[in-house]
Amino acid sequence: MNTVKLAICGGGVIGRRHAGAISEVDGAELAAIADPAPGGKALADDVGVPLYTDLQALLDAENDVRGVIVSTPTEYHFEPTMTALNAGCNVLVEKPIMPTLEQAEQIVAKEQENDLHVLVGHHRRYYGLVEEARRIVQSGELGKLVCVSGIWNARKDDPYYNPDWRKRRDAGPLLTNMIHEMDSLRYICGEIESISAEVSHEVRNWEKEDAAAMVMRFASGAIGTFIVSDQANSPWAWEFATGETVFFPRSGQNAVRFIGTEASLDFPNLVVWHNGDQTPDWNHVMEPRETKLELENAYYRQIKHFAAVINGTEEPVISAKDATATLRATLAVFDASSTGQRIAL
Ligand SMILES: NC(=O)c1ccc[n+]([C@@H]2O[C@H](COP(=O)([O-])OP(=O)(O)OC[C@H]3O[C@@H](n4cnc5c(N)ncnc54)[C@H](O)[C@@H]3O)[C@@H](O)[C@H]2O)c1
Fold it and tell me: Residue 45, CB half-sphere, CA atoms under 13 Å: how many?
């Protein structure tokens, strides 16, 4: 495979993680970083690559860059993504793809017009356990999927909100955390057809929401509920369940349940509850069957995949169009709450 030169636009928390992943992938090399703030300089110094204050200057100077990772705050995803596409680069933009559907649709159009790929940082798609949950649900092992129940509740630390952008709507738990859940739900269960919801700002009283509760109907006929909050302290969220990063200590507690006519699945713990040879009804004992999978390094796999997509050897695992559907479903939660209506997707 040809070594692919990559640039990072936005050298903050997640930009640093991408830089680490690039250093581990054979066939990918970090060429430079664009970031106007001191955090970007610290990262460029740490990894020993040139720093530019804006992406256009970087691309003008480093003309062998073939892929750009856009890891700026969500409200600043659009301009660098367009700049990269206009320079003929493929893009891996962090999630959510864009803060608005209008911008996301412009990106999808530009990507097609320039015959390039825009991948989106829904990194959970690179975990074997997500793939396995999708297989279990789609294979009919649970019977017909009837209900889904999910929770993502965490109390983020106070310093997390020091940057002002994290108090704004685009950085709330819906667009920061629920968007991952929404993407996994769509990937595992198929399309979501409609959403009803309540959103609350009772704890902090900031522009961003503190919590949301939603009801969703899937195209398959299954129905689901989900609650999300970044102010509610609990052991129930994907990160705590999986121990995905050292920053959020593992609780091992399950966060989502997929429930079918024959059996149920705890997720992400991958425990199928079933009746064995007995009739699947409430008169019979349900037994757990656990599948143990090691948690891979999804960020490493994501960069490896990005390089392969650039080299034309793999098709995108998550396209801009797909991520736009995830964004549409997530934004519908705001609309459903503010209008009091069920939103058809
Ligand atoms: N995939 C995930 O699990 C995951 C995790 C965390 C964050 N994210 C996403 O990553 C994005 C960034 O989040 P973060 O926590 O790393 O933020 P951050 O504030 O730590 O870092 C953002 C960086 O972008 C820089 N920046 C701002 N405008 C810029 C511009 N125009 N050009 C170049 N650099 C610019 C800032 O100076 C800062 O260094 C958000 O969209 C967030 O939703 C994804």
Answer: 6
